[in-house]
Amino acid sequence: MASRLTEISLDCHDPDLLAAFWTAALDWVVLDAEDGLVEIGPVRSDDSALLDAVRSGPVAPTMFLAAVEEGKEVKNRMHLDLSPIDRTRDEEVERLLALGASRTDVGQTGEESWVVLADPEGNEFCVLRSLAPGHFSL
């Protein structure tokens, strides 16, 4: 049996600020919060049902936002890719910009099929092609 990806951890200055951004961006909820640490993710069932689900196959990970003193200095070595499911890529970019994201340059040429943004603390992420009906099909 393999391991499962269950959490993604993101160091930040203001976990509450990033929780507000990422819950709105991903249609997630705050699952738990304490001083300096916020866990966000999809709405989930009780712990025993979640454990059964994780053991039987992959589930969406949660994200831990942890307060740290040091600041972000360089491009992330790992980032999230988002795929809109009910609108075009460009409409999703505009929605995320309105939530507090910003455009950022990590060396892209302008010919990419994705758009690079940063969350309110500068963590890069990409918005990929739309998976909405009529925009993507198999």
UniProtKB/TrEMBL annotation:
Pfam families in the cross-refs? Glyoxalase_6
> Entry's SUPFAM superfamilies?
Glyoxalase/Bleomycin resistance protein/Dihydroxybiphenyl dioxygenase
The protein's matches in InterPro entries, at most eight in alphabetical order, are given as:
Glyas_Bleomycin-R_OHBP_Dase, Glyoxalase_6
Ranges of residues in domain Glyoxalase-like: 8-128
Gene3D superfamilies, from UniProt?
2,3-Dihydroxybiphenyl 1,2-Dioxygenase, domain 1 (3.10.180.10)
Protein name in the entry:
Glyoxalase
Species of the source: Nocardioides alpinus
